[in-house]
Design brief:
494 residues, alpha/beta, Rossmann fold, globular
């Protein structure tokens, strides 16, 4: 079997670089792997993340130097990778910046990989976190630039993932790396004491959302129709006034491109583990004793999948889906308990969620800040026995590092005691229209010289179910037309 390299997550590094200190990062997981495979070469990573000068690219560059100077045999003979949390961004960045094609990486296993961010990243950049690190961790910094890459909606991170969907940099077809994603969706009960929603958020392992780790994300590009760029000011002004008055106006935008996992590209094997949290000796996905057997079964499936064998890799999709079904069958039997979380039921943490990230640009590719925009979901209230899409939204975050991105978090399947199962919520959503308006922040409100042509796209139940998928993230890249008032520029015949 090929050697296995382990890569840890954010803030897990040891101040000491001895083998014993580095081994403590991973608990007994390396020992368990070696027992499972009798003879196996295991290489343990240690990198610095709690330094404000360090970026994810710096860490990937450090990995590349270590491989070139000390582990050339891995580059020449090939190896497998198992990452935890932020290790996902480290290894994906290394592949993007340094890997040849095909890559020496054969099978890549993500254990709660922070692929599309964490709500904790913003909190970790705050002043309280700064003081806490300094006082309780011997003057440690926060690793601000690493945390910025981990923010929900981080533009650089999203762009990196999108590049792996396009030739000649496709992860499977070009680099020939077979990926596998594993995560839990139940926070450790002790984390409920933290007054932060992300420590016990439903659909999350207490740090990473299930939908944020899943590499089966979807990408939709929305832009103006051809006539929009040549509209007269009368039509533009009429659309702006109609948007302000919440009345219908012509649809000047359309879907330009779509990429859906499992439809436009192969599905990545993705599995959810029972009673599994992000960290901890009891429930942690790497070091936890309770989920260990199921985690190890899925890891073995991944590592034993034949290299560069598409049929075998796709067979793992069904295998991981079977493990996920076992998880949710077991979750049905969970009971309420514990003093700290008496207001919630542990089964609620298994409710199915989705993320939708909306990014706004103008026709020149420049960002439009969310702070100067409005995103409306205008529901058809005349439909009987329906609910507004807003009722499914559990959290909304505007990225600080990428101000033109907003992330919506939706509960799309809720447990129903009568059905003794998780029931779809999207099918009950009333038809609605997605409307987006924006203004130039520096423009005077009374008589602006620069504005944006408002967007309106009707959404039906069928289109919504196609667009928003349980346990997945959908990225909507929207281009709005930036328009100049006729008074901006005038030509007069001499």
């Amino acid at each position: 079997m090929k050697p296995v390299v382990l890569i840890h997550g954010y803030s897990a590094e040891s101040s000491d670089i001895t083998l014993g200190a580095i081994t403590e990062i991973y608990g007994d997981f390396p020992q368990v792997l070696r027992q499972a495979y009798t003879v196996i070469e295991i290489d343990l990573s240690r990198y610095v993340s709690l330094d404000d000068s360090v970026t994810i690219q710096d860490i990937a560059r450090g990995l590349n130097r270590a491989l070139l100077e000390q582990y050339q045999h891995l580059l020449s003979d090939g190896f497998h990778i198992i990452i935890h949390s932020t290790g996902a961004l480290v290894i994906r960045t290394w592949i993007q910046l340094f890997s040849p094609k095909p890559s020496p990486i054969r099978n890549l296993v993500y254990l709660a990989g922070a692929n599309l961010g964490s709500g904790w990243a913003r909190i970790g950049q705050g002043q309280v976190a700064r003081w806490g690190r300094f006082v309780f961790e011997g003057g440690a910094e926060r690793g601000v630039q690493v945390l910025q890459a981990l923010e929900l909606g981080s533009g650089g991170t999203i762009d990196m993932h999108l590049r792996f969907l396009q030739p000649p940099t496709r992860m499977l077809e070009d680099y020939q790396v077979q990926e596998f994603v594993i995560i839990g969706t139940q926070a450790d009960p002790s984390w409920f004491a933290f007054p932060v929603r992300y420590s016990h958020e439903d659909g999350s392992d207490g740090v990473i959302r299930v939908s944020a780790t899943n590499l089966n994300f979807n990408h939709v590009v929305i832009g103006p129709i051809e006539e929009a760029s040549t509209l007269g000011w009368t039509d533009v002004d009429a659309a702006i006034k109609a948007a302000k008055q919440k009345t219908d106006f012509p649809e000047y935008y359309e879907v330009k491109n779509m990429s859906f996992a499992g439809q436009d590209r192969p599905a990545v094997p993705f599995g959810i583990v029972f009673q599994c949290a992000h960290t901890g000796a009891k429930m942690g996905i790497v070091t936890g004793s309770e989920p260990r057997d199921q985690v190890l079964r899925m890891v073995r499936t991944a590592l034993e999948t034949p290299e560069r064998s598409f049929p075998d890799w796709q067979s793992a999709v069904a295998n991981f889906e079977a493990e996920t079904k076992k998880t949710f069958d077991s979750a049905k039997t969970l009971k309420r308990g514990g003093l700290l979380n008496f207001l919630s039921h542990p089964r609620d943490q298994y409710d199915w969620h989705s993320q939708v990230v909306v990014r706004l640009f103008d026709q020149d590719g420049f960002s439009i800040p969310i702070s100067s925009s409005d995103i409306f979901f205008v529901s058809n209230q005349r439909q009987a026995k329906t609910i507004p899409i807003q009722s499914l939204i559990q959290d909304t975050v505007v990225s600080a590092v990428t101000p033109n991105a907003i992330t919506f978090y939706l509960r799309v399947r809720r447990f129903d005691k009568r059905e003794n199962n998780w029931v779809d919520q999207l099918g009950s959503v009333a038809d609605f229209a997605l409307e987006i308006t924006a203004v130039e922040p520096a423009a005077p409100a009374a008589n602006p010289l620069v504005t944006y042509l408002p967007l309106r796209i009707p959404m039906t139940k069928s289109s919504l179910i196609h667009l928003i998928r349980p346990h997945e993230t959908t990225i909507l890249d929207v281009t709005l037309v930036r328009v100049s008032h006729p008074g901006m520029y005038t030509l007069v015949r001499y």
